[in-house]
Amino acid sequence: MFVLGELSAGVVHEMNQPLSIIKMMIQLLLKNVKNKTETLCMKDHLNDINNQINKLFQIVDQIRIFSRANTVKVNKQLIIMNDLVHSFLRLFTKQLNASQIELIKNLGKDLPLVHVDPIRIEQVLMNIMANAQNAVETNHKDDKKLQ
Fold it and tell me: Where is the signal peptide (predicted)?
């Protein structure tokens, strides 16, 4: 039963990350509707929401596979890590902006291709950035910068 509890806690944690982004995007959409901003902006947010929902489905699928075979399917792909980080930060920067936190990026150049599961890497990035955001909000109320 203890193992099931740990698994449930992990599932809840992993599902909260995409759900948080979905919630944030919906809030931004609602704000844009009130201000009657351009339809293109809303379309961009809707695409972001759709992408996060797809990630959520992939996480649920991995949990389903784990519960059946006691192994987790890893979907490794050759990727350019900076592309993955840029894609992730495009979404997360909106959340930082809502908290009035400035993000300072310093990514390596000419990095080699890596063979990883992009969903898992994004989950790791989300955990790191959410913890960093929380630390900045708690400890740096005057100088809200994240590097």
Answer: none
